[in-house]
Specification:
The chain is mainly alpha-helical and 198 residues long. 57% of the residues lie in helices and 8% in strands. It has a two-stranded antiparallel ribbon. A two-stranded parallel ribbon has the order 3-4. α4 (82-99) runs parallel beside α6. The longest helix is centred in the C-terminal third of the chain and has 20 residues, at 148-167. The N and C termini lie close together (10 Å).
């Protein structure tokens, strides 16, 4: 989850990002992080050096944003079915909201943007934020291609998942080819984003 107070305008940061990406030859307003690392489409013809430039440019953009985030994890194999996994997520997220209740109560309205990609996630969001905050929550459908902050969420998820794999000594071949070492990954990317952890 990426948190942003909409009173903090980020249009300047987005304009700077667009200009920098255009200068390095990426004219799309969409960054999808794992395909960038894996050299999948639309980055299939880009060399590692070119993909690293795109990645580090986006990383600098994320670092400059007035945001915070919280990542939630479950191990699928630990649960016998989806309903148990959903219950674990609801427990984690409800506990987090209650721990940070004072933070959330500062806002007159909470807007939740999600692409409805997974029904279980949509349901979890409604069963946590909706149940706790009721009418001040506004659920909106949003897509990565249209919202930079959705791309930021994708970027953070990728780093958090990569960090787990590096910690378990199980990075993918693509991650090793792209980041080279755990030390490089942690120093240049993960430690910078982890400062925004809520």
């Amino acid at each position: 989850m990426v948190f942003h107070n909409q009173d903090d305008d980020i249009s300047t940061e987005i304009s700077v990002l667009d200009e920098k990406l255009e200068n390095i030859g990426w004219n799309e307003s969409f960054i999808h992080t794992m395909p960038l690392i894996r050299q999948d489409e639309p980055y299939a013809t880009f060399l590692r050096e070119e993909r690293i430039k795109i990645f580090t440019t986006f990383a600098a953009f994320v670092s400059a944003l007035p945001i915070s985030y919280k990542a939630f994890f479950v191990t699928k194999t630990f649960y016998q079915n989806e309903s148990q996994m959903e219950e674990a997520f609801v427990h984690q997220i409800s506990s987090f909201i209650n721990d940070k209740l004072e933070y959330f109560q500062h806002f007159d309205k909470i807007i939740i943007y999600y692409d409805r990609g997974q029904k279980i996630i949509s349901r979890i969001l409604r069963n946590t934020f909706g149940d706790i905050f009721g009418g001040i929550v506004d659920f909106r459908t949003a897509y990565q291609k249209d919202y930079r902050l959705m791309q930021v969420a994708d970027y953070i998820c990728t780093l958090e998942q990569s960090r787990i794999r590096w910690d378990e000594h199980k990075p993918t071949k693509s991650e090793k080819d792209f980041f080279l070492t755990r030390q490089v990954f942690m120093k240049n990317f993960y430690k910078k984003i982890s400062r925004k952890h809520l």
